[in-house]
Write a structure and sequence with these properties.
single chain; 201 residues; mainly alpha
Length: 201
């Protein structure tokens, strides 16, 4: 599950410009200043990755493009909702990628390998569903309740992912342990049967 945490950290990095924007909006900073700060953070991220010669994920390029386009639209119209809507597209992209069957199997801990794969595959679709729900709610708050959008962005995406992560981990662990115990019991019965065969002969 360590890789899943790493993936979550990468998502936060991709959404960092939007998080900066949300904080500034919540503090009632001028829309143009908030937008400029969001664009600056996005550009700085790409520049830092270039400087460190680290690979830049396609999602980060997409995030930068969305910040530039939506940021320009927000400044021209003086409407913060353009940048508020940006995370919806990010979540839609991620959710679509997560619809690939078995994408979570690479995050299965060694103790669970070969056990609980079907359960983890099902949770892969649950994660995709959460992304789509989060994106839809983000759009709803951006359009209908822009004053509450910063609070939504600060609470729901993180809280919902922590809850689903805990449910995923505990459920897969439960099934893996149960199957492991069943395998041990079967091996014990087989060993006992072999031990009693010579006596029967």
């Amino acid at each position: 599950m360590g890789n899943l945490i790493f993936a979550g950290r990468a998502l936060i990095q991709d959404l960092l410009p939007t998080l900066v924007f949300a904080v500034l909006v919540a503090l009632h900073v001028d829309i143009r200043i908030a937008t400029g700060a969001s664009v600056a953070v996005s550009v700085a991220q790409i520049a830092l990755y270039k400087l460190l010669k680290r690979p830049i994920a396609p999602l980060q390029w997409a995030s930068l493009g969305l910040v530039l386009v939506f940021g320009a639209a927000g400044v021209l119209t003086n409407d913060a909702r353009f940048l508020m809507a940006k995370p919806t597209l990010i979540y839609a992209i991620i959710g679509t990628v997560m619809l690939k069957r078995g994408w979570m199997l690479r995050y299965m801990p060694p103790v669970a390998e070969g056990r609980g794969a079907n359960v983890l595959t099902g949770f892969g679709y649950a994660w995709a569903g959460l992304m789509f729900v989060t994106g839809a709610l983000n759009l709803l708050f951006a359009i209908r309740f822009p004053a509450l959008w910063p609070a939504f962005l600060a609470i729901f995406p993180v809280a919902s992912k922590l809850v689903l992560f805990a449910i995923t981990y505990l459920t897969v662990r439960h099934f893996a342990i149960r199957q492991h115990h069943a395998e041990q019991a079967a091996q014990a019965r087989a060993a006992q049967a072999q031990a009693t065969q010579p006596q029967a002969a």
